[in-house]
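Protocol step 4 of 5: obtain the predicted structure for the target chain.
Materials: sequence only (see below). No template structures provided, no constraints applied. The aim of this step is simply to have a reference model before the mutagenesis design in step 5. Sequence pasted as it appears in the construct record:
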Amino acid sequence: MTEPKRKLDMVVKLALGVFFGSFILIGIGMFLTRPDRSIPPYSVGSQEGTTVFVHVPSWTPDSRIETLIRRFRKVGRGTGDFGPLKIRPTTPDDPGGRYQRIAIYVFTAATWAEPEKLHQYLTTKDPEVKRTFEKAVRGLYRLDESGEEGRIGPILPGKDTAATAAFARELFKGPITAPMQAPFEDRPDATREPEPAAGLGRLPEQGRPSGTGPSPPSDGPAGRDR
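Step 4 output (structure tokens):
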């Protein structure tokens, strides 16, 4: 004669429910917080006023930094909300919007993006100190009442030339009403930089040639309505 099957105790059922439910919640959380692989990984190192310093891994090529800058541009022209991109409101008290003016500098070394470095850059009166910061920049996105600007490479004084185009160039610049240019990867003449081998970094910034380029943006007093 077979014995009847024993029913699971209520405590055991609850324990099993919590066990499997936790795995389901973890899976949902991982799906919702999965990284956006269409742009390079980056971190906001510091933020003061309308200026933001972010850093990307040292091996990030210019082509990937360009995709990040164009993502900033897409947000600036679209919702205007940089919160999902880990940036706090730059003009929180402006009735026109919380991100009326913003300047994002991209570095490949986390030390350049520290709060002390940002404060020093904004408050120093020494032009040589500012030049040192600007030579270390790998990308720039600026948005204010006059329009928008995006650049790759260090910020150099003067205008772009053929000699500086290899390491510093303007991606876009103009009023917000201007049409958007096709992203780098969608342009037929785009030449993508090869990804460096694992474990290899980028050459030191001081190895870059000198040249001329535009001056860094400054925070304007007015905002852009969204």
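Step 4 remarks: The helical segments are 10-32, 62-77, 115-123, 127-136. The first strand starts at residue 43 and ends at 48.
Proceed to step 5.
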